[in-house]
């Protein structure tokens, strides 16, 4: 076929190509001198600019001064990776990850009221029924859970402070009572030892002593009472030689809760299951959101694919 | 196929010392040293000239185009990362620069001559020589014109093997492909070139003009 073409082809392509290869003239000296001169002039201009702007970084200056055509050229010559400038290329994965996270989290938060089956079910139930109320209390919306949890934490810290104060007060009162009792016994002993010799004298004294003793005992009792009361208020967890109050801990806890909030346990132990549950709910909502967004995502993907194909086709042309 | 070290990339088959020198020159040139750039381009400069000549076929145009290519290389030196041979990177820049140059010139020519032609002006060919040389030059111009219409991969393979006289292996190394691929690209380029020239001849022959005129009649 080639032979046939050669015969009929007045050009004789191969011969013409050989001639063309042979006829290349020597590189003229003006060409060499020309580009060198232009290069030096450009470099000098850049140096002057750099001295003025104090930014003579050559690679940056070359990139800045290259025209849009040049940049395209560079990209074509250096491959597809060079199409984006290096600083921008560095941030592309970070920005992409941030965009995906923003889409997922933002979309989930924005649509959870509409899409979440759990929240839909909650809103559908009759809130007047007491059974439903308890169920709703168990599966309350997240916002309510959050406020409750905050209130509980605040109450816990307050009750801890109260507990420690009450403990100190109780210890001090115990010591005072012991001293008072000791003093009362001693007074009684001395009174007994004084005996009848001083009976006449001590009538009034005994009365006063008794009065003192009685006062002190009474004071000790009140102190002890207040100590035990305060321990009860604090949860009654301090071991004591004194008879413990007969209030059961659960009851005490419920009482304190009723009276404005108290610790129902350690906050750290309550937090982790709560967090896991919340995370679970959130993931569930995210799943619902993704499911709802799937048709739109598929549409966008198809459009992007078409755009890429058109771009590739144009490039190949 | 891909070279790992910059020194190996810059010049094939050079010694380690020469490679290090090239690397240093490249760094200095990137740092804005024109003397280092001139030294670096000393070996690649003739390639730029020849490529520009193959595309334009005229001394002045080749010179202008080569100058533009050199400046473009200087400006975009920072984008060369050593992924391919320096020579092939330079070749690619030169080829693109030539195509841009030809497009630009065609536009300018059309803008400046077309209105005059419409008024009946026919510019004479100023190039000197006998009728034979004029005809030969015209043939070469038509081939050059047809070459610019080839797909990029075929054009590169044809220019490097047929006009630059490089072997298939050398060309394959420059284009980061296999020798077999280069061979098939050259064959396809030749076939396509013949088609283009045939179409061109048919279009420009008097019979073709007459037939097209007949077709245009109501």
Write the layout of secondary structure elements.
The complex is a heterodimer of chains A (317) and B (218).
Chain A: H1 2-8, H2 13-22, H3 29-53, H4 58-65, H5 68-78, H6 86-115, H7 117-124, H8 130-138, H9 142-194, H10 199-234, H11 249-258, H12 267-316
Helix pairs in contact in A: 6-12, 9-10
Chain B: H1 6-10, H2 16-30, H3 34-41, H4 45-56, H5 59-75, H6 86-118, H7 131-148, H8 152-163, H9 168-174, H10 179-204, H11 206-216
Note the main attributes of this structure.
heterodimer; A: 317 residues; mainly alpha; 81% helix; B: 218 residues; 11 helices; 75% helix; globular; disordered N terminus; disordered C terminus
Can you put this structure into words, describing what you see?
The complex is a heterodimer of chains A (317) and B (218). Chain A is an all-alpha fold and 317 residues long. Chain A has helices at residues 2-8, 13-22, 29-53, 58-65, 68-78, 86-115, 117-124, 130-138, 142-194, 199-234, 249-258, 267-316. Chain A is elongated. The two termini of chain A are 28 Å apart. Chain B is mainly α and 218 residues long. Chain B is globular and about 60 Å long. Chains A and B meet through helix 2, helix 3, helix 4 and helix 5 of A and helix 3, helix 4, helix 5, helix 6 and helix 7 of B.
């Amino acid at each position: 076929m080639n032979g046939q073409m050669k015969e009929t082809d007045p050009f004789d392509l191969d011969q013409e190509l050989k001639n063309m290869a042979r006829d290349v003239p020597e590189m003229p000296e003006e060409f060499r001198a020309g580009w060198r001169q232009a290069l030096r002039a450009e470099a000098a201009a850049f140096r002057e600019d750099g001295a003025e702007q104090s930014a003579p970084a050559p690679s940056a200056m070359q990139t800045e001064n290259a025209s849009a055509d040049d940049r395209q050229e560079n990209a074509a010559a250096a491959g597809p990776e060079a199409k984006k400038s290096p600083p921008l290329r560095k941030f592309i994965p970070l920005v992409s990850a941030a965009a995906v996270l923003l889409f997922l989290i933002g979309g989930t938060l924005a649509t959870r009221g509409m899409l979440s089956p759990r929240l839909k079910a909650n809103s559908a139930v009759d809130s007047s029924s007491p059974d439903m109320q308890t169920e709703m209390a168990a599966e309350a919306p997240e916002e309510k859970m959050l406020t409750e949890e905050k209130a509980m934490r605040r109450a816990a810290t307050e009750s801890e402070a109260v507990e420690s104060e009450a403990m100190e007060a109780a210890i001090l009162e115990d010591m005072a009572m012991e001293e008072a009792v000791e003093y009362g016994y001693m007074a009684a002993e001395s009174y007994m030892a004084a005996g009848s010799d001083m009976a006449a004298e001590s009538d009034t004294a005994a009365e006063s002593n008794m009065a003192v003793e009685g006062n002190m005992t009474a004071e000790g009792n009140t102190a002890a009472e207040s100590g035990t009361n305060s321990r009860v208020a604090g949860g009654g967890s301090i071991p004591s030689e004194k008879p413990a109050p007969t209030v059961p801990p659960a009851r005490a806890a419920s009482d304190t809760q009723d009276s404005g909030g108290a610790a129902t346990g350690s906050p750290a132990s309550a937090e982790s299951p709560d967090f896991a549950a919340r995370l679970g709910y959130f993931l569930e909502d995210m799943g619902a959101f993704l499911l709802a967004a799937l048709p739109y995502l598929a549409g966008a993907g198809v459009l992007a694919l078409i755009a890429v194909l058109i771009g590739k086709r144009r490039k190949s042309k | 196929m891909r070279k790992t070290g910059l020194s190996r990339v810059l010049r094939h088959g050079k010694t380690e010392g020469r490679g290090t020198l090239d690397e240093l020159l490249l760094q200095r040139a990137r740092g804005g040293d024109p003397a280092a750039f001139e030294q670096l381009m000393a070996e690649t400069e003739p390639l730029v000239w020849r490529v520009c000549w193959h595309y334009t076929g005229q001394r002045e145009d080749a010179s202008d185009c080569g100058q533009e290519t050199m400046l473009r290389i200087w400006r975009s030196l920072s984008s060369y990362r050593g992924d391919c041979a320096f020579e092939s990177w330079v070749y690619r820049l030169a080829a693109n620069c030539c195509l841009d140059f030809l497009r630009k010139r065609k536009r300018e020519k059309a803008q400046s001559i077309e209105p005059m032609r419409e008024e009946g002006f026919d510019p004479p060919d100023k190039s000197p020589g006998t009728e034979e040389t004029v005809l030969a030059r015209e043939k070469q111009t038509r081939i050059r014109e047809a070459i610019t219409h080839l797909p990029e991969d075929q054009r590169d393979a044809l220019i490097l093997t047929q006009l630059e006289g490089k072997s298939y292996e050398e060309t394959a190394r420059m284009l980061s492909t296999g020798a077999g691929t280069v061979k098939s690209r050259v064959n396809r380029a030749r076939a396509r070139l013949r088609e283009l020239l045939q179409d061109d001849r048919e279009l420009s022959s008097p019979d073709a003009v007459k037939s097209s005129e007949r077709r245009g009649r109501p």
